[in-house]
Amino acid sequence: MPIEELRGVRVDRLDVDGPTIATDDDTSDLIGGAWSAQAGLIAIPVERLDETFFDLSSGFAGELLGKFGNYRLRIAIVGDISERLAADDAFAALVRETNRGDAAWFVPDTAALDAKLADRARR
To answer: Would you list the DSSP string of 52-114?
Structure first.
């Protein structure tokens, strides 16, 4: 999907249909694409994430979120994760903690992402 601007932030919003993000190389490719497009935030549909992302023992979620942080590129995981939150207390804790900051967010839809960016702009 093309770059769009939300609340003054260039957002690289990935299509739901696309390759699964499952490896460190996949993460690097996303970061490279966002940097090339001069995006400040990448919005990844939850459907694009490999199942290992949701298994915290795999370490993939930490690697992905950490790598985006290292490159000072914000990330939003967009989509319904309510079943995953109900099934895994550790994952729910990660989501709560992540959503408190400004670098990475889990949001149910694009409207919620827009609201997060609006709230951030008011600060």
So the answer is: GGG-GGG-HHHHHHHHHHHTT-EEEEES--HHHHHH-HHHHHHHHHHHHSSSEEEESSHHHHH
pTM of the model: 0.93
What CA–CA distance (Å, rounded) separates 41 from 13?
Answer: 8
Q: Please answer whether residues 91 and 54 qualify as being in contact, where contact means their C-beta atoms are separated by less than 8 angstroms.
A: yes
Instruction: Name, in order, each residue with C-beta under 8 angstroms of 105's C-beta and a sequence gap of 6 or more.
Output: 74, 75, 76, 77, 98, 99, 113, 116
- Provide the residue type at 108 as one letter: P
pLDDT digits (tens, 9 = 90+) for 52-86: 999 999 999 999 999 999 999 999 999 999 999 99
Q: How would you class 30 by CB atoms within 10 Å of its CB: exposed for 0-12, middle for 13-18, buried for 19 or more?
A: buried
> Which tokens belong to 52?
């290992």
As a whole number of angstroms, the distance between CA 74 and CA 55 comes to 22
